[in-house]
Amino acid sequence: MPAGLFASARADWATPPELFGRLDREFSFTLDVCATPDNKKCPRYFTPAIDGLRQRWTGRCWMNPPYGRAIGAWVRKAREESRRDATVVSLLPARTDTAWWHGDVMRAREIRLLRGRLTFVGAPSPAPFPSAIVIFGGRGMPATDAPPRVVGWDWRAYP
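The structure corresponding to this sequence follows.
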């Protein structure tokens, strides 16, 4: 199989606007923790220069982290900030075999395994991997180490 099928030189693919819109209607996000001025999803956002990993996250946060080697640090930060009362909703590759998935994602409140493959903004075709929406904390609920609610989610089927 061609190497390009499984890897990309880019790690910063932008969220499909239809998916973000669906989630924003549900969560009313107040902070985009991984953004650029060109792809920000909220009026308040952290750029790479601000470094969201070094900031305090508050409110209802959206996170589509860079999908490179640092993704584990972003997922850990999301889990930590949810313990400080932030709600963090993240778009992640469903890499269920990784240490960050088992160490942090499996301690989220909810995991929505997306049906089908996403086509990220600017991508010529769908991603070569499945995706998940991972929700840490949320809606006045304290973070917990209880097993997450895991569901299959056909996000296109809902208004």
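Residues 5 and 56 are 36 Å apart (CA to CA).
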